Amino acid sequence: MQKGRKQPKYDYRANLTESQNFITDKKLIKRIISIGKINKEDTVIEIGTGKGHLTEELCLRGSFVYSIELDSKLYEKTKAKLSRFTNLKLIWGDFLKYSLPVKGNYKVFANIPYFITTQIVDKLTEASNPATDIWLVMAKGAAKRFTGAASETEKSLCLKVNWDIEVVYYFRREDFHPMPTVDSVMVHFARKPIPDLNKSEFAAFKKFISHSMKYGFGRKNSLLSKKQVDIALKQAGLPHAHKDGVTLYIQWLCLFRCYRRIYGDGKL
User: Fold this and answer.
1) pLDDT of 210-219, one tens digit each?
2) Which H or E element spans position 111?
3) Residue range 168-179: average pLDDT?
4) 176 - beta bridge partners?
5) What is the largest CA-CA distance in the chain?
6) What is the rounded distance in angstroms from the CA atom of residue 89 to the CA atom of residue 17?
7) For the CA atoms of the chain, what is the radius of gyration?
8) Nearest CA to 101 among 61, 125, 131?
9) What phi and psi values does residue 259 have, to the nearest 5 degrees?
10) Taking a C-beta distance cutoff of 8 angstroms, is the pair 153, 56 a contact?
11) Is 186 left (phi over 0), alpha (psi -120 to 50) or beta?
């Protein structure tokens, strides 16, 4: 590969078959949709209609379903298969270009293409009118990054300001056809009725997290000294900082609020 040559942008629309792992078992579909508690009052958006197995059960349980499918062949086949449902709008298009509802409540339930997981999560969680609940089937590794299961990341910390995030189901690889090469889980994003920070605070929090993950605490260029960290966590009744650093979202939130009390936005 020649240095300096710009690589062509990956066209995921032309490579759909690389990330199509369908769930077809009816008992399993009923089980995971039951976990999502979809009911007759719910408007549901599905990302990727696929062969319509999930779509069918969502239509039976929900009030109205909007299902977006990019694969034209699947779209045509599934459109005919699900034509009996009057509470379904099947849309041929790219979800990443799809306009989410600007008002009203809705939920999202989907077995998503794994290779655009981050783009999908960003679109859903950063929407001007986000869903009240999001259930996504995704790779276990991606779920760890969003939930901060192994360790908190900038991504997980920022998400948790507005969302409660939890893995609610663990799949077997045999649950999918074709079988994926990675383990899969279902993640629930529940929108918090009141965010932990307002918009202005959130912008400052993102800077605080980015800076502190780079420089740590109690070091040169740190925003807080080790003593300030210890006092803030102790006064809040929280665990002291681990030897490897601050590990919990609630600790990060506490230290950010401590920083704001002391300095405002002075150092950021």
Assistant:
1) 999 999 998 8
2) strand 107-111
3) 96
4) 23
5) 66
6) 23
7) 21
8) 131
9) -60, -45
10) no
11) beta
186 pLDDT tier (thresholds 50, 70, 90): very high
Cis omega (within 30 of 0) for bond into 178: yes
Give the residue-averaged pLDDT of 206-232: 94
Helix (H, G, I), strand (E, B) or coil at 260: helix
Alpha-carbon gap, residue 103 to 43, rounded angstroms: 12
Q: Which residues of 159-174 are buried (b: 16+ CB within 10 A; e: fewer)?
A: bbbbbebebebebeee
d(CA 56, CA 188): 21
Residue 182 CB neighbour total at 10 angstroms: 12
Q: Tens of pLDDT along 114-161?
A: 999 999 999 999 999 999 999 999 999 999 999 999 889 999 999 999
In this structure, the dihedral spanned by the alpha carbons of residues 189, 229, 262 and 154, taken in order and rounded to 10 degrees, is -30
Type of residue at 103: K
- Tell me the average pLDDT of the chain: 92
d(C-alpha 170, C-alpha 137), whole Å: 9
**Pairing of the two strands 22-23 and 176-177:** antiparallel
Q: Where are the alpha helices (DSSP H) in the chain?
A: 26-35, 53-61, 72-81, 117-125, 140-147, 154-162, 199-215, 226-235, 249-263
Contact predicate 64/40, CB 8 Å? no
- Residue matched to tokens 């929108």: 191
How would residue 242 be classed by pLDDT, with cut points 50, 70 and 90?
Answer: confident
CA-based torsion, 193, 197, 200, 206: positive or negative: negative
Q: CA-to-CA distance for 160 and 190, rounded, in angstroms?
A: 10
Extract the tokens encoding 246: 């601050």
User: Which residue, among 51, 63, 1, has the nearest Cα to 26 in the 3D structure?
Assistant: 51
Nearest Cα residue to 163 out of 148, 183, 178: 148
Tokens of residue 75, six digits:
């779209």
152/242 Cα distance (integer angstroms): 13
